[in-house]
Amino acid sequence: MINLLAINGSPRKGGNTETVLDAFLKGAEDAGASVTKRRLVEIQHKNCRGCNECHKTGVCVIRDNLTPVFEDILSADILVLASPIYSMSVTAEMKSFIDRGQFLWARKFVTKTLVFDKEHLAKHVGVFVGTSGQDIPDIFGAAFPVVRAFFNDSGFTYSKNVLFPGMDKHGGVKGWPESVVAAEKAGRDIVGEMMK
């Protein structure tokens, strides 16, 4: 069984991002994956303190409701990060989450207690699901390196973007049903490819 964990960084319940994400997850589930979704806006947690204690121990000193989410990440086969574009990058919720993952970077590069070999990376896939109101060149450009850093630190090969720019011109996802169809197909295809 392929375990898929989706982290939804949108603060809007049932909005454009969550709608296409849910379609993606339906496709993944239909293809045989076990699917779990976490909405960051519903998880009470603190921001990274920048204390660098994790550089000494590889462990974050903050223990809160986000802690078990990171534990789930390390047991997932597919990690999906979903976010709309706010002020040309991921949402504050998603950025806070990624910043809290600094301890993974510390384990990988400082304490060297977290190692991902080629075999692991071949079997662990990172996917970014993104939406934007505007449809302008490079609208997702600032988000890509942010999510790439997290995928790299947590042992996932960043292999796919599922992007829906220009939601505003469609009046949102309700006026763009093709986006839902495309997202569902992407979820089904990605899981199907991994199961070959």
Detailed description of the structure:
The protein is of the alpha/beta class. The chain has one domain: Rossmann fold. It has nine helices and five strands. It has helices at residues 16-30, 54-57, 67-73, 92-100, 102-109, 118-122, 143-154, 167-170, 177-194; strands at 3-8, 34-39, 78-84, 125-131, 157-164. A five-stranded parallel sheet has the order 2-1-3-4-5, sandwiched between helices. Helix 1 packs parallel to helix 9 (177-194). The chain is globular and about 50 Å long. The protein starts with a strand and ends with a helix. The model has no long low-confidence stretch (mean pLDDT 97).
What is the topological layout?
Layout: E1 3-8, H1 16-30, E2 34-39, H2 54-57, H3 67-73, E3 78-84, H4 92-100, H5 102-109, H6 118-122, E4 125-131, H7 143-154, E5 157-164, H8 167-170, H9 177-194
Parallel strand pairs: 1-2, 1-3, 3-4, 4-5
Helix pairs in contact: 1-9
Write out key terms for the chains shown.
196 residues, alpha/beta, Rossmann fold, 5-stranded parallel beta sheet, 9 helices, 5 strands, 17% strand, globular
Strand content: 15-25%
- General form: globular
Can you list the strand order of the major beta sheet?
2-1-3-4-5
CATH class: Alpha Beta
* Percent helix: 40-55%
Q: Compute the gyration radius: what is it?
A: 16 Å
- Which CATH-level-2 architecture? 3-Layer(aba) Sandwich
